[in-house]
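Query structure, 281 tokens:
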């Protein structure tokens, strides 16, 4: 189904380095970015050391939503842009945030240009991405009481990490009431999901789990990429106690000794097309 409206909260790609966050949506062959630079950011201080060029070599056309930005061109020209200013910044420039307020912009030219040199520093690998989430954590906390809930949550986090490591997975980070982990084997990832569900149930906790297999980008201790977003969207479909997987993961998990129930096709928020989802039975 054609998507006529997109929101940057469900961006196709999110790039975050130090003091810059860029959320990108690609539509009709054009990439538009929502960029936020925090106070103190300056291209020559925070990006130049990474890309190795004297100036930013990308032309930027966009609108300032909030804050103010200063720009210096290689010919010595210097100017500022503020809220609702349309800017057309030529290649070969330096830029910085003015004042104590973040500078927030929308750009439709140069949205990916400044990122391209950084991609040579990234590593892309094929992995199975796993998300977990505690169901009704607030209700469970009220039922158990603050102290018991804190102890239970700590034990759950420890057992989750131990279980992921037992199946040779890597815990990327905690996600509030859950965890994000990766595996280089699909069957082990599915078996780990089943073990995580059982371990949580032993503690009186109901969790939901989602898995998707695809290419991810390693960025320090974190990961990013469309595959991560897709796994997160699959998690949003899961109910308490369910383990949902994408058709890609289900197709590759033939040797896991696990049966799957076809849950039909779904549109995943922020992603084009439909995806067939399966539940581990």
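Result returned for the query:
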């Amino acid at each position: 189904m054609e998507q006529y409206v997109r929101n940057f909260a469900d961006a196709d790609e999110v790039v975050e380095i130090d003091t810059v966050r860029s959320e990108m949506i690609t539509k009709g062959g054009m990439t538009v970015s929502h960029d936020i630079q925090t106070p103190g950011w300056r291209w020559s201080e925070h990006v130049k050391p990474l890309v190795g060029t004297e100036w930013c070599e990308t032309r930027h056309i966009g609108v300032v939503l909030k804050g103010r930005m200063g720009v210096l061109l290689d010919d010595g020209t210097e100017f500022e842009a503020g809220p609702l200013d349309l800017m057309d910044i030529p290649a070969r420039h330096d830029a910085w945030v003015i004042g104590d307020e973040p500078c927030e912009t929308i750009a439709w030219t140069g949205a990916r240009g400044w990122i391209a040199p950084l991609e040579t520093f990234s590593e892309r690998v094929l992995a199975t991405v796993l998300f977990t989430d505690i169901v009704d954590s607030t209700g469970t906390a009220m039922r158990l009481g603050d102290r018991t809930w804190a102890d239970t949550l700590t034990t759950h986090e420890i057992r989750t990490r131990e279980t992921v490591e037992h199946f040779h997975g890597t815990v990327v980070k905690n996600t509030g009431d859950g965890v994000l982990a990766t595996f280089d084997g699909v069957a082990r990832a599915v078996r780990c999901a089943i073990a995580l569900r059982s371990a949580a149930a032993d503690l009186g906790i109901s969790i939901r789990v989602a898995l998707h297999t695809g290419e991810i980008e390693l960025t320090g201790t974190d990961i990013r990429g469309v595959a991560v977003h897709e796994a997160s969207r699959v998690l949003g479909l899961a109910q308490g106690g369910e383990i949902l997987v994408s058709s890609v993961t289900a197709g590759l998990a033939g040797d896991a000794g696990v049966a799957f129930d076809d849950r039909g096709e779904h549109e995943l928020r922020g992603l084009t097309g439909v995806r067939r989802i399966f539940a581990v039975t």
